[in-house]
């Protein structure tokens, strides 16, 4: 059975929740051993895969979980808005650290390394490629180039104003076009995650609402503040 067939069977059996364990940078929680503990807790709670940023964190998580890890490296580069796994060396390092799936920025913006070169390198490591996209056009292009998973990860993040709702319409159109869609980005409640599946997503990745304590506290504070003012 291929890797994706096995993962498919698991998704069917226990639902397609992927947990992204990416603490807010510089948070007291932003430490490999704490990220590994979060990842293990998510695995024990039924997550079918984990999304982990940074080579050291991938290594720490790989040591304690058995589910697939979607590995990424985020970089702030001077001449490009592309942040997620921009370099071929990043692919190599993530593969070596134990990632089973490598996600990269699949947007059509100025980039240091072409999408087909990243895909070829991921293939060389015999790993699964996930393209983090922001539009239907980008998702289809990456799908045609051979990315097995298409994420809606970057929808809403390529322009100045970030919406509050997730992009369910993009999930539908990618799924109708035959992509294996990972709904990702602002699925901040179980109800929204369920809607992603209803719109044709294969799996849903949830980050902030599960693993970013500071964001969750802020949501509660915003809701509470001013109620009795
Ligand atoms: C845009 C971007 O860089 N997204 C990142 C990709 O890895 C993460 O910061 C998100 O937390 C992740 O996609 C999960 O999304 P949410 O935290 O909304 O559940």
UniProtKB/TrEMBL annotation:
Keywords: Carbohydrate metabolism, Isomerase. Pathway: Amino-sugar metabolism; N-acetylneuraminate degradation; D-fructose 6-phosphate from N-acetylneuraminate: step 3/5. It catalyses: an N-acyl-D-glucosamine 6-phosphate = an N-acyl-D-mannosamine 6-phosphate. One of its GO terms (cellular component) is cytosol. GO terms for molecular function: N-acylglucosamine-6-phosphate 2-epimerase activity. Pfam families: NanE (PF04131). One of its GO terms (biological process) is carbohydrate metabolic process. It is an enzyme of class 5 (isomerase). InterPro entries: Aldolase_TIM, NanE, RibuloseP-bd_barrel. Its EC number is 5.1.3.9. NCBIfam families: PRK01130.1. Converts N-acetylmannosamine-6-phosphate (ManNAc-6-P) to N-acetylglucosamine-6-phosphate (GlcNAc-6-P). Belongs to the NanE family. This is Putative N-acetylmannosamine-6-phosphate 2-epimerase. It comes from Silvania confinis.
């Amino acid at each position: 059975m291929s890797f994706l067939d096995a993962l498919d069977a698991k998704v069917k059996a226990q639902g397609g929740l992927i947990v992204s364990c990416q603490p807010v940078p510089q948070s007291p929680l932003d430490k490999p051993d704490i990220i590994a503990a979060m990842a293990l807790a998510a695995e024990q709670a039924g997550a079918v895969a984990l999304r982990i940023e940074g080579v050291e964190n991938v290594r720490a998580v790989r040591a304690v979980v058995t589910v697939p890890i979607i590995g990424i490296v985020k970089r702030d580069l001077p001449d490009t808005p592309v942040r997620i796994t921009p370099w071929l060396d990043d692919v190599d390092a993530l593969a070596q650290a134990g990632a089973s799936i490598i996600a990269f920025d699949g947007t059509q913006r100025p980039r240091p390394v072409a999408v087909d070169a990243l895909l070829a390198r991921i293939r060389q490591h015999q790993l699964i490629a996930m393209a983090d996209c922001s539009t239907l056009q980008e998702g289809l292009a990456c799908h045609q180039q051979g990315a097995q998973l298409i994420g809606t990860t970057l929808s809403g993040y390529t322009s100045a104003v970030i919406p509050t709702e997730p992009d369910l319409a993009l999930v539908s159109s990618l799924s109708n076009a035959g992509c294996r869609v990972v709904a990702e980005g602002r699925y901040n409640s179980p109800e929204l995650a369920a809607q992603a599946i209803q719109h044709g997503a294969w799996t849903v990745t949830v980050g902030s609402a599960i693993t970013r304590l500071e964001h969750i506290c802020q949501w509660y504070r915003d809701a509470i503040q001013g109620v009795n003012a």
